[in-house]
């Protein structure tokens, strides 16, 4: 698992697919994932955040 500025990369299962997730663990536009759960939005900030209310990601909060 490697931390990134706004998110992290996590491996799930035996397939070894690398999910790009927000630092709170959710799929979010701040760190788009290419899987079917991924969210790609042109906006950033709290208005575009797809995470829950407990997200403390600096990119989502800006």
Automatic annotation (TrEMBL):
Listed name of the protein: Uncharacterized protein
InterPro entries registered for this protein in UniProt: Metallthion_15
One Pfam match: Metallothio_PEC
Keyword line: Metal-binding, Metal-thiolate cluster
Lineage, uppermost ranks: Eukaryota, Viridiplantae, Streptophyta, Embryophyta, Tracheophyta
Domain of life: Eukaryota
One Gene Ontology term of the molecular function aspect: zinc ion binding
Similarity comment: family membership: Belongs to the metallothionein superfamily. Type 15 family.
């Amino acid at each position: 698992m490697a931390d990134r500025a706004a998110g992290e990369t996590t491996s799930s299962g035996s397939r070894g697919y690398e999910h790009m997730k927000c630092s709170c663990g959710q799929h979010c536009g701040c760190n788009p994932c290419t899987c079917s759960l991924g969210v790609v939005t042109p906006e950033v900030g709290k208005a575009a955040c797809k995470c829950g209310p407990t997200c403390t990601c600096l990119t989502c909060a800006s």
